[in-house]
Structure formats: structure tokens, C-alpha cells
Design a protein that fits this description.
The complex is a heterodimer of chains A (about 110) and B (about 110). Chain A is an all-beta fold and about 110 residues long. Chain A contains no helices and 11 strands. Classes of the chains: A mainly beta (about 110), B mainly beta (about 110).
Chain lengths: ~110, ~110
């Protein structure tokens, strides 16, 4: 298994632009998570999907952030419009159960 | 709310020596899971070891072992025979439902 696959690995964009981060979970994992990592706040859960349905999006910072999971093998996290304070590493993780999370390699987002 | 505290922001150890990283957590739950994740400079989040709260026996994985003290809500990680490749950030994490709650991390440097 190739693990959780995230793309792109790095993204540099200008303030105000739309950014889309992508994630392919491990086949058979029914839970998918998006986390954000910053120096100030550490690792924060943004949103949790179970069987492609968003269960908890209370961590999504504001309306500029949106996430979708159209099928079991693909999820996106979109930021529109992006701001410099959105600069962070964004991780996607998947899990078959309440434990045994597998993380992707993350996307480092820089908004200038 | 569950909180995870790692009181050692930075630690260093010489190669082949043993080091212990501390973690405490706060919860009212009785059933939960605890994890240690390693994040090397590549930024990949790697699961090091997992402990189920209902198991009294401390988990071990090769050179990595934990000291789980449920009453004290303590979950420390011991790394034996430290290797240069152990240099990384180490995160303690707690899970009682679907989301992982992470500590702020301990930066471990292994020196020759």
C-alpha cells in the first residue's frame, strides 16, 4: 500500500488566491482527518469525515476553509481566499478504526 | 476537554544512551488510547508506539517502550540505545473518540 498520499508537497501562493490541497486515503480506511500544524498552535484537527460524510468540522477556522470528500478515495481542503496566516503544514490522515492513524507527508503552504 | 502536556520542549542524549520523554494528560474518560508519534525533519508523522488504556501491560516496540501510569495520567516514552536517526520531534497524543489530541512536542537531539 502506498500510504496516505497528499499533493502538492509544497505550495506557494499569493494572498487572495484559491488553494486546493488533495488527499488520497488508504483503501479500506473509513475515517479521514485534516490537521493543520503551526509553531504557535501545534497540531489542530480541522475536520473529520466518516464514510465520506463530514462528522466534525468545528476546527475549521472560518468560512474561507472548506473540505469535501466526494468518494472514499479522495478528499480536498480548499482555502478561498488565502491569507498569510494560513501558512502552515496541512496533514491528511486516515484510519480504519479509532486508532491506528496513518498520516500523509503533509503539504507545506506558504501564502505571501 | 482532553489536554495533553509535554513539559520538555527540548532534550538531548548521546548515541547509545537511554532517554525518557514525559507526557501527562487530563481526561475523565475510562477507555482511551495513547500514542507517541515521531516527526523527523522530513515532517512525516510516524507512529512509534500505541497503548490501550485498559491494558495494564506497558507497550514495547523494539527500542521504544512506555511507562503508562493510568492513575497518575502519565505516559512516558523510553528510547533505549539511542541512534542518530532518532533525532526528531516527538508528539504524545490522546484519543478517546475519533480525534487525536496532540501535545506540543519534545524536540529530541541525538548526538554522536
Amino acid at each position: 500500500d502506498a500510504g496516505v498520499i497528499q499533493s502538492p508537497r509544497h505550495e506557494v501562493t499569493e494572498m487572495g488566491q484559491e488553494v486546493t490541497l488533495r488527499c488520497k486515503p488508504i483503501s479500506g480506511h473509513n475515517s479521514l482527518f485534516w490537521y493543520r500544524q503551526t509553531m504557535m498552535r501545534g497540531l489542530e484537527l480541522l475536520i473529520y469525515f466518516n464514510n465520506n460524510v463530514p462528522i466534525d468540522d468545528s476546527g475549521m477556522p472560518e468560512d474561507r476553509f472548506s473540505a469535501k470528500m466526494p468518494n472514499a478515495s479522495f478528499s480536498t481542503l480548499k482555502i478561498q481566499p488565502s491569507e498569510p496566516r494560513d501558512s502552515a503544514v496541512y496533514f491528511c490522515a486516515s484510519s480504519p478504526l479509532s486508532y491506528g492513524y496513518t498520516f500523509g507527508s503533509g503539504t507545506r503552504l506558504t501564502v505571501v | 476537554a482532553q489536554t495533553v502536556t509535554q513539559s520538555q520542549p527540548e532534550m538531548s542524549v548521546q548515541e547509545a544512551e537511554t532517554v525518557t520523554l514525559s507526557c501527562t494528560y487530563d481526561t475523565s474518560e475510562s477507555n482511551y488510547y495513547l500514542f507517541w508519534y515521531k516527526q523527523p525533519p522530513s515532517r512525516q508523522m510516524i507512529l512509534v508506539i500505541r497503548q490501550e488504556a485498559y491494558k495494564q501491560q506497558n507497550a514495547t516496540e523494539n527500542r521504544f517502550s512506555v511507562n503508562f501510569q493510568k492513575a497518575a495520567k502519565s505516559f512516558s516514552l523510553k528510547i533505549s540505545d539511542s541512534q542518530l536517526g532518532d533525532t526528531a520531534m516527538y508528539f504524545c497524543a490522546f484519543n478517546s473518540g475519533y480525534a487525536l489530541n496532540f501535545g506540543k512536542g519534545t524536540s529530541l537531539l541525538v548526538t554522536p
